[in-house]
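Data card: per-record layout.
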Amino acid sequence: MLDEDSPPIVTEIDGSIGIVRFNRPARRNPLSLAILQELKRITSALFTRNDIQTLIFTGTDDVFASGANINELAQLDAATAREFSKLGQELFQTIADASQVTIAAINGYCIGGAMDLAVACDIRMASQSAGFSHPGAKLCFVTGWGGT
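The structure for this 148-residue chain is written out next.
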């Protein structure tokens, strides 16, 4: 497992390809508020670069990403829940509208809101070990980020 002191998202540039790697596999790479804000910052910077033609989103080890942290969601009130949902919707719409080709390279578990991220991408590729789940359905809610 990776050290918790390592960055939660690692960005690599290889020629005209940008790679955004979620880097908290022990926690299932959650798309928490802090991660969404960081992802917005990263994608905003990469999408303005003319030398980047493709942006790949992927995970680490056997985890692509999970959606929102359920414990974090439980702490939201109506106003903060709306802002959290809006942030995810705007971020994933920005990914969907990007002029670059966006790819979800799903290397393992793709859970909840991570499926919204995958749907926002132009191309989705899944490894044989990829697994998809939407546990929110059992809790009587769907993600608020646009994929469902």
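Known properties of this structure: The radius of gyration is 14 Å. The chain has a mean pLDDT of 91.

See the next section for split statistics.
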